[in-house]
């Protein structure tokens, strides 16, 4: 596997797009026995209340046609047990939705997860592995490989390939990282350039009057920008607005 991975890594790094890289990953994953791949990335994986946000970048290979809409538009990401386990994990893990299999999911799954559980059972994709990748500044990515239900023991087979799949996942992430900023969508909260500027000064400890003087604007104008930012962030005061803006990476230069 090491020789194959070395060759694959060279091809992956020369990929011209994330889609091309995912195609290369799929070929390697299929050699390990995986049928389906799901890659996702978000610069901010949780909202300020700790709820999973739909990832900014999602790439699918060999999933059912309705997967994208269910997970990204219908809220399946927010109730996906694997994603909940992954966001709190630092190590790759194998998982199974079959009740007789002992994995990290068995003690986690509840009634609210039923739509995801039922969907994967109906699709005969009840077993897989997931590699969580925690990135600088709070970014988060996962690569998940799923095995179709069939003969043999898919969970045991998945566990035996967990190490190789992990290496592939990190190789993909290294290749994908320079592309993610361009691929990512907008933040769940949109602030204007002036609102972000005012919050940056507020984060430095300046009062509204001091910000007005610094920007050569009236106090009323600065107060309006700060109040607007507070409303958009659902904040009760300027301190909370700054904290939430930092959380959503809205004040990054």
| Unreliable segments of 5+ consecutive residues | none
Percentage of β-strand residues: 5-15%
The CATH C-level class name of the largest domain: Alpha Beta
Q: Sketch the major β-sheet.
A: 5 strands, antiparallel
User: Helicity, in percent?
Assistant: 40-55%
Q: Mind telling me the CATH superfamily name of the largest domain?
A: Transcription factor LuxR-like, autoinducer-binding domain
- Within the CATH hierarchy, at the fold level, what is the topology of the largest domain? Beta-Lactamase
State the separation between the terminal residues, measured CA to CA.
41 Å
Explain how this protein is built:
There is one protein chain. This protein is an alpha+beta fold. The protein has 2 domains: 2-183, Transcription factor LuxR-like, autoinducer-binding domain (Beta-Lactamase, 2-Layer Sandwich), CATH 3.30.450; 193-247, Arc Repressor Mutant, subunit A. The protein contains 11 helices and 5 strands, in the order ααββααβαββαααααα. The chain has helices at 2-13, 18-31, 67-72, 81-87, 114-122, 154-160, 162-183, 193-203, 208-215, 219-233, 238-247; strands at residues 36-42, 57-61, 93-96, 127-134, 140-147. It has a 5-stranded antiparallel sheet with strand order 2-1-5-4-3, with helices on both faces. A hairpin with a 5-residue loop joins β4 (127-134) and β5 (140-147). α9 (208-215) crosses α10 (219-233) and α10 packs across α11 (238-247). The longest helix has 22 residues, at 162-183. The two termini are 41 Å apart. The mean pLDDT is 90.
